[in-house]
């Protein structure tokens, strides 16, 4: 009943048998203390509840209300749940309520209860006024059953659910749907709150339209007051289609409480605007009703007009709100009664359908805009026309005989015109579907006579008044009675039991199928003395008589009857119940001694045989203690039995039961028997595992098939030697395998096995013969060696004992060391020739034999030494570096002074005409190398001694030579080495000419050659510049490809000696002749700026710092002066350090500078650079004070110059050093703090 949920259909909501109470029931009935219980259905505000009355009409009740409904059987009536919803039961304070909720929960923002769900979309044919789902989630259907029984409510219980209220304040004109339903949109918060507060005031003054007051029994309103419009039912106005009568929709327009305070001006402005809009909506004329029919009428209305009492100006008068929606509501209880909404939309006309004929209706219209609802208009009354009656109900049979039927019926709704006649038709019993009139008149009953017995007749009924004839009712089939049935056949026994008998009988053949025949079954117990007593009375053709005695006789007969009378009983038949099964026999016992394979058991008959003799006893036997499977071992009438064929040492369980005519008795108690154990049976012969070895075999076996009733705990293995019948035990233990060792290779042995348990050892198994495998050969004797040449040795050996298998292979190992020999021969031969050996070298060899059984051990190692031979070939030849080229002490290399006998020191060889070579000494093959032969190809070979270095002289520069070397010893000459290609270098370059291009008193710039001053480092021609020091030795100044070099840090007026040498890839050329260059004298150092001291307006004193003598040469000074922008002129020249300047002009600037002059003894004077200039500013003669100020200013300027120039060079250097020290300390601190840490 909430908006946007499928409405509850009236036909399925409650059972039609529940009457509506005119007033609330007494408390005893509500609480369930009376014979009947009352169900209170709570209808929420804005919802509609539709029920069916006793006369078949529907009544719609709008909320808020509580509808009391009486439950005749004390249970909660069935409530229809719409599609997509489920019902749940909640309990609060002992009151249970039915809660209808959507089946799939969805989440809604705002922190509300998770029980709020978005409803399904409305039907297309319902023109309901539905707000936006996010704005107005529907409250669930809530029906309160106060007096419902506990057993009728099987759903789960949940806590009470309080639905949250959602409100909307404004309807957007752009959000209208195709059915004229506006959607609610948000406005800004402040305007929304003010509008809601004003709406609340209007509703309090005018009341809630269309809804009625609060019902007495309804729950109190929520803290947020709501304003609900009446529900709508189906209409036909050209917009929506026709729908069911019970489907309703409603619109809730609510306002929240005003929680904040607004300004008075804004509140008055909004009050005025809202009051004007409400007045406009409330001033609507009453509707007009036209085209009134029996079940529909057309309602027309006009837009609301502005009241004439308003005297607002044209500018202030607001226009008609667009769009406006209207709600048409009707009432059948008077103009002041409850109204029910029949239409809601924007049209100005509507067709009201589903009306009742000949009924007074009151209709009114109500205008609404956004969330504002105007007052209803004046109600208009109209009465629908009368029409033909409703279709009556089918007639019912009140009584009947074999030849007549008495029919009755109820009057249907006359629809405003009294029913005058009824038309009853029948098919005359033909069953063709063609009906003829059998009665026409005002009576509500009629008796049809002259009918056939046991026949079917079809009837239907229609009602007629002045407006016409109603439709016919449903067709009903009625039957006439039959004659008294004939006696039936006697009953037959279908099934018999110990305490029951199942009997069946047949229907009398002469009775028609349409006749309702009933049967009486009578029974007489033997020797009871009561005669036949009825056991069954009904229409079934079989019955089971129970609670009888076992093995007893009973007599039965059956009689049939119908509405006409009772037949004679059938013939008497006699049946006997079955005997009961006997009780269980006594527990069996053992007779005699239990054997390993049998035992004898006996038992006693049962105490109760069940009414029949015991026909046989059955003995069952189960092996083991679980009793999982039982085997039948005896079946007969004897009371004892011998159980044989048992297993020794096994547990058995046995039980007995007996059988008689009554069935099988229960099982007796179980007897447990344990047979004694015996030694185990013979084992299978042991089998060989794997391939037999030469001296051992591995055997494996399995346990015996018969363990004698006790687990096998030990096995014993015996071996029988070849050519002997004596046996010996080689293994005893619990394992199932063993390894027998100490056997001879290639022999056949026999093995037998026996098993043992706690009863002893069993018999031996059959014999298993195993032949051991052949063994590996024995160790070979030491091989013999014979040297055929220095590089070839013949090794021979003898075959060892084969140890049961012929030797198929010999393996010879050969190596230079005893621990690193490798296989060099593998085959069946008894000798092998080793080739490619080194002369005069020790070798070791050994041999082993191999057969199918394996590899024999190696023989002892034999030492073999090859004879000496010529030397081996030289492997590598290297070219000596230039620094290693020296003259060796040989007759052809050294120059000996014949007179004095003094050997001159070795001289360096030129790489352009000499090649210095060295080589690796080859192996001498046992004989010391005496000399080497160097072959140059074209020239005669050079013979040298046992050296590994030699310088070949007298070669052509820049020429290639092919060189190979051959070693010689006492046994002959070895092979030549590989040919190596070597080349002499070109001749070294000649030294360039050296000259001085620039000089000063401390530097000399030297230049040589014709190339550029700077040359790439990759140039082949480079220079080596040297200068002679004080000791007469030449030291290197520069070595590189450049052609200039600047010599610095020289002394003044000093001569220096130089020489130069050129070199390239060919080597170093000779040094040039000696060149001598002299540095000039040095000029005096620059002086600091002179100091000025004004003496008067026309004179000043200039002073400067003196310089010391330079190497004994005196120093003089030259002072220059410049007035204004003229040139400097010499003012003084002499040895004094101060000068008095006179005849100065008062208004002119003077600049002074000074330089030092060196008075050389053997040369002209050398003037140093001038000092910085110093300026003498003129004096101003305005006033005495100003002059004094000027003088003081001049002195101040002079003093400032003096102060500015007072720092010496040492002080400046110290200052720079301190600055660098502070910066270094700061950098070290930053590195220590940020980087290291």
UniProtKB/TrEMBL annotation:
Read off the InterPro entries from this record.
E3_ligase_FN3/SPRY, FN3_dom, FN3_sf, Ig-like_fold
Q: Biased composition, Basic and acidic residues: where in the chain?
A: 185-206
Source species, domain of life? Eukaryota
The biased composition feature labelled Polar residues covers: 225-235, 1171-1185, 1195-1204
- Keywords of this entry: Golgi apparatus, Membrane, Repeat, Transmembrane, Transmembrane helix
Give the family per the record.
Belongs to the FNDC3 family.
Write down what this protein is called: Fibronectin type-III domain-containing protein 3A
Q: Which organism is it from?
A: Nothobranchius kuhntae (Beira killifish)
Q: Name the encoding gene, please.
A: FNDC3A
